[in-house]
Amino acid sequence: MRNNSLREIVRAFRKYDDYILSTHNNPDGDGIGAELALSFGLKKLGKKVVIANSDPYPENYEFLPSNGLVKDKDAIKASYNVAVSLECSGLDRIGKMKKVFLKSKKIINLDHHMSNEYFGDFNYIDSGAAAVGEQVYDILLGLGVKIDIDIATCIYTALVTDTGSFAYSNTSKRTHQIVVELMNAGVNPSEIYQNIYEVSSLGKMQLLGKALSSLRTDKKRGVAWITLKKDNFIKTGTAYGDSEGLINYARSIKGVNVAISFTEVEEGRVKISLRSKKDDFDVNKIALSFNGGGHRRASGAILEGSIEEVKEKVLNKIFDYIK
Ligand code: 5GP
Q: What is the rounded CA–CA span in Å between residue 268 and residue 183?
């Protein structure tokens, strides 16, 4: 359960060669941006690097440079000298890549979730970091890597997505200081924003319509929730990744302190996302009680059961917590 210092992590990256980098299943902007930036930095130091993930990148991240380093999970070696996990609180979050990690000689675990399980030979967990991209930025500086435009674009993507465009409480002075450095390296925030957020398909808008019509609230307790069934994705021609951010509509309602989304990822499996507006309502605790995890104000879990069963279980847990 030991956390390594930044200096120790930098030393480990200097020492080893032959890396595989992976982020969690259903990858998001932070995991993607951070793994790309780290891989470019390691390449500059002459290391062998590949990236492979359990699930493909959502389309709106395809604008990011990848320099041919992202491989199909079925086209990689069985093991590497070092496997680096980015933004996974436990090894199960890495999905189908877990077997390669277990066969590799060393695991480096980089994460900013306080629920992290310290599963690495090296663990660099900083719950004060806004994004794992912020940690990767510090590692690259420690390694003496020059932050070029490709690295800067990827780190900026990690930061802008995990901070809700610099609006969430995890955004710090440090985050903004890094942004200044990334802009000095040439990033164009408005172009990146448009690439990520202004590329919605008609289907995604229709999915938003379904989410909003499913919106329910318990005004007395300050709770709001949305429900997305498998059928909603099929009818709108969308995928799970298209539901990213929809929970914010529930959270943005006046008087709502906790928002939940219930998403049927397949029959009998429901992904829940939890968001809190107040530090004293720790949604990470709720997620942990369902074997998930995350942060105090943003967490998630996957539960077995029908959507109605899961809803009842989770809402009751939240109502109990409020009592
Ligand atoms: P989201 O709800 O957007 O998927 O995730 C919110 C936060 O909770 C993120 O930091 C994410 O990594 C974490 N999270 C989401 N789902 C899970 C899960 O099933 N297990 C764990 N450990 N963390 C999760």
A: 45
Architecture of the domain defined by 202-322: Roll (3.10)
Q: Whose CA is nearest to atom 8 of ligand 1?
A: 299
Residue spans in the chain of domains classed CATH 3.90.1640.10: 6-196
Rounded to the nearest angstrom, the gap between the alpha carbon of residue 95 and the centroid of all alpha carbons in its chain is 14
Residue 155 parent element (H or E): helix 149-162
Residue 185 CA, ligand 1 centroid: distance in Å: 31
Contact 152, 282 (CB under 8 A): no
pLDDT at residue 103 tops 90: yes
Pocket of ligand 1 (CB under 6 A): 89-90, 93, 113, 115, 273, 292-295, 298-302
Q: What is the pTM of this model?
A: 0.93
Residue nearest to atom 17 of ligand 1 (CA): 300
pLDDT band with cut points at 50, 70 and 90 for residue 192: very high
Ligand 1 atom nearest 272 alpha carbon: 2
Per CATH, domain 6-196 is 3.40.980.10:
no
